[in-house]
Amino acid sequence: MNRSEFLKRMGLGTVAIAAGPSLLTSCMDHGMGGEAPNVVDGVFNNPLKVPETINGTSALSAQGGMETLGNGGEVSVLGYGVGLLGPTIRVQKDQNVNLNFTNKLSEHTNIHWHGLVIPAAMDGHPDHMIMPNESFNFQFPVIQQAGTNWYHPHLHGLTGKQVTKGLAGMFIVESEEEKALNLPSGAYEVPLIIQDKRLNSGGGITYNPTMGEVMTGFLGETILVNGTNKPFLEVESRFYRFRILNGSTARIYNLALSDGGDFYVIGSDGGLLPKPEIVKNLLLSSGERADILIDFSNVKEGKMLYLMNEKFSGMGSAQGDQSFNIIRFNVRNSENAEFILPTSLIPLTNLSGASKTRPFKLTMNMGQNMSGMHQINGKVFESDRIDETVELRSTEIWEFDNTSGDEAHPMHVHGVHFQIVARTGGRNTIVPHERGWKDTVLVAPREKVQVIMKFEQLGKFVVHCHNLEHEDDGMMLNFKVL
Ligand code: C2O
Ligand code: CU
Ligand code: CU
């Protein structure tokens, strides 16, 4: 990467030149350089793996295992089971979860239940470390609406590595209200955990972000779905429900169907939307979920149809410069199953009456240090420092202001669900899958996004960027609900 490209990627332009060349040289010395690898194409002929399902009163362990990811045969990975990733945990609304977790790794870990609004002591704050061979009993009530959540480790400085090596799984909440909608279920409801990985020649997962990749994100050349490289799924000519999780550390996907057809967004991070939204594209950043319906009933048998990533721009120069396929659907003609798309889903009451607006300024500063470049309100994460205090049962607007010219920040708040009030600058709009409850919102370069939420859980939680390289670099603050 030459100097001007480097500056462009930093989003600093002439400011950096004024700051002097010494800091540039030091960054370049520390492994800056090299473009993000291109995603490799190929034949999609591996059957999609679907994680097993367990209920909310099971045992779970983080452990090493074996999996075949590339062409080199079995490699060692991490997971909450025998291979990569973990089982899908499925619970009913109002059920009590009781999961006995054991750390069988050789380093500390913990679990954060991303999307679940639960007591702080169960939320997997980076303070909460479960040492090797230790167990912890996660017990909490599920008091929220039906939706697609997930779980993963949440340690300061280690989250990116542990997630990339395989520690992640889906957590689905079901409810009677949802059941009444008769959405596709059973074999017609499929989880899709999309992750990019960088594989070495032996097929093993590498994770060693350079300083430049801490900024751009550590992007991989191999796209896995549920841990399957180049997957396909046999589908019948009918409606399917896909619960999609972007479980990548940094890569943003602009999901589309390869025939340019429409699909329906029915849910987001915090559950079902008030009504289905018809879209052709859906931009999903790390940590976000989208619940979609695809109608295969008019697709001709034998046709190659893919869920793909379509090129996009405006999310930083490292993101979106390539279109690629993610999963192939092999459509088989079947009896037309009667499915009527509901016109409304779960009603949404708009939150209002915020008592204050809290600013969160998102910056990237190249200091002397090789870490701590990503800051919120000028601060780098410190586990013991309480950055914001909030009153229990108060409603507030939080404003995320992305001042960078070249980095997108998917901002995530623990312990709450929020609604998006406004987005100014950048895209200047609230997109269809954001019209419901969320916990993670993409704040593109130069965007300002306001979210509103009510704090119903006491204790210490975090707010952070879900680009895991940024998070591990310190782009996270503590807030305490009193
Ligand atoms: Cu998915 Cu704080 O994380
Ligand atoms: Cu979370
Ligand atoms: Cu970020």
Automatic annotation (TrEMBL):
A Pfam cross-reference name: Cu-oxidase_3
Keywords for the protein's UniProt record, in alphabetical order: Metal-binding, Oxidoreductase
Domain Plastocyanin-like: 74-177, 359-481
UniProt protein name: Bilirubin oxidase
GO molecular function: copper ion binding; oxidoreductase activity
Domain of life: Bacteria
Species per Swiss-Prot/TrEMBL record: Algoriphagus aquimarinus
